[in-house]
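Duplicate of #3305? Posting structure anyway:
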């Protein structure tokens, strides 16, 4: 079951990363000109950071879980500001899906972290 959850996390992060990579390739570097520069830089950086999180989830689970949580907490916070305060996003659908995924990340991270700890205890004894 751990592998299925890791796959879902990796799949969602990969889709996010590929989306930002596409935007950078198609529209040029820092493609989100409609947003403030700091938001544009953050969204552009997600092209790399999301893929790094996938790698870490596969290679070093706990480091990947921490990075995934940092990504999703910051992404939901920044996208909430972009939608509710800055009004640079016209549709909240993506934000709602990201918030749902954040909940999944938090719940699964707690479970996967504990699952990994229990597995290590079983292997040692």
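Output from current build:
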């Amino acid at each position: 079951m751990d592998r299925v959850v890791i796959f879902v996390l990796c799949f969602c992060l990969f889709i996010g990363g590929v989306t930002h990579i596409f935007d950078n390739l198609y529209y040029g570097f820092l493609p989100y000109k409609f947003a403030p520069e700091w938001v544009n830089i953050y969204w552009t950086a997600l092209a790399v950071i999301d893929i790094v999180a996938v790698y870490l989830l596969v290679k070093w689970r706990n480091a990947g879980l921490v990075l995934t949580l940092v990504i999703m907490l910051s992404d939901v916070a920044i996208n909430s500001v972009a939608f509710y305060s800055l009004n640079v996003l016209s549709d909240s659908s993506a934000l709602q899906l990201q918030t749902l995924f954040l909940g999944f990340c938090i719940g699964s991270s707690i479970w996967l972290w504990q699952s990994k700890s229990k597995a290590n205890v079983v292997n040692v004894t």
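Confirmed duplicate; merging threads. Helices lie at 2-27, 37-59, 61-85, 93-124. Residues 120-125 have pLDDT under 50 and may be disordered.
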